[in-house]
Fold:
Amino acid sequence: MSERINELNRRRTFAIISHPDAGKTTLTEKLLLFGGAIQIAGAVKSKKTDKAATSDFMEIERQRGISVATSVMGFEYNKRKVNILDTPGHQDFSEDTYRTLTAVDSAIMVIDCVKGVEPQTEKLAEVCRMRNTPIITFINKMDREGQDPFDLLDELEQKLNIKVKPLSWPIGIGKTFQGVYNISENKLVLFQSHTKQSKDNSLTFDNIHDEALDKVIGKKEADLLREEVEMVEGVYPKFDLEAYREAGICPVFFGSALNNFGVKELLDCFVDIAPPPQARETGLRLVKPEESKFSGFVFKIHANMNPKHRDRIAFVRICSGMFERNKNYLHVRLDKQFKYSSPTAFLAQDKEIVDVAYPGDIIGLHDTGNFRIGDTLTEGEKFFYKGIPSFSPELFKSIVNRDPSKTKQLNKGIEQLMDEGVAQLFTNHLDQRKVIGAVGQLQFEVIQHRLLNEYGASCEFENVDVYKACWIDSDDTSKLEEFVRLKKGQIATDKHGQYVFLAPSQWILNVVKEDFPDLNFAFTSEIQNFNLAE
Ligand code: G4P
Structure:
């Protein structure tokens, strides 16, 4: 097998998804410790500052700072190259998370055993389901008085619409938590808090009926465990690798990230079963990772934290072939060749210049404004990777320029921030008014703050009467044109020039849908290149 194929087969690229506070950062850190990527806990995220005392701007800068440092964390483990892609914690930046999920091959979902499935978990799991991304679940904080494990599994199945398969089973919970029993290996791992850990805390038994188990955890507890494991075996299907990789079944582990308990078992299983880089759809054809020609796409753009330097890093997911430093590649949207002299790879918190990178890897390319999210690089073939979604925002405001002498800077700033995917821009068809669509209030604050600090442009936001943005199209272009003409006050174009109907209310949306049956109204749009045909 060629070195390239070997290299790509050992890549495991994934994201950790969770509702804020479930333990994503703690788990990431413990995984990095096992991977030898960091030496001490607390290195990933500086100790949380008192949230109540932190202004929103500090929070923005803090999040930006952290996310550039920890956007991608790579390490070696059991002959695998593991790449963890970080996702922002704050839900106002959830669009960023959705886009990051387009660049992974699988996900680990962290659930707080006290709180169960939370709203953000539901949304993220939905995105994974849409993309058939396989998920492993880690039920965290077992040292706390959480919910009954069967109830938690039922909740996972019902709220997330997935089939689960516990691979380990907890003995007790909270104060009575003694450890977990690995069902297939008949191995008991005894819980020890992180303050008093020794290496040998696992015991293997002939089977679950082994009387030696009674001596270790107590007869009553052992009998209960036997009963529960029997139920688990009866209720849930056998673990099937293919079903997991096709996102048909979700293996579940129990543990405590803070106490570094159950994390090694999770990582060992992850590197064993998680899928290597997968084939990806483009507008033209399915591209397989083992193809010899390089291709990849931009899923994230990060501006320099120093406002004096307006350069950016474009994060590229490599999908096929091999990326080489100083080689010319086609930037498909611009139809131009570029070469990159200092592509960076990410190792824990360090960046280093690399000469080659393989499918599954994420590289950072220095960008002076040529990239947009969704851009594709190839060795010459003209296609775009599909599936990078633009979601209909929840909040809409129009931008008002407060300093006409800085109009140019304002426009430039808006354009660049939108390329980065900070929020979405809709330009009104009739009067060219700029309407920003966002998921959370914090995004407006980020825009205002960054326009002023990085571009010297001052702006304000005004409320607009928009309930939803619907991307519209039709097989019958005359019907589409007629609609645009009739509703011109409520028609805008997005960044790619696609028509969007800014519906003032659900009621009006229902009426126009009935009046124009030949039109499609969509709440999401795929970021694509609409200039390709030009
Ligand atoms: P997030 O990235 O998903 O937002 O969560 P994070 O890891 O920051 O964890 C949120 C809180 O939950 C942290 O406490 C963390 O210490 C705690 N935690 C994580 N895993 C466990 C666990 O297994 N057991 C228990 N009991 N707690 C856990 P914090 O007080 O908010 O922050 P800190 O002061 O400890 O950093």
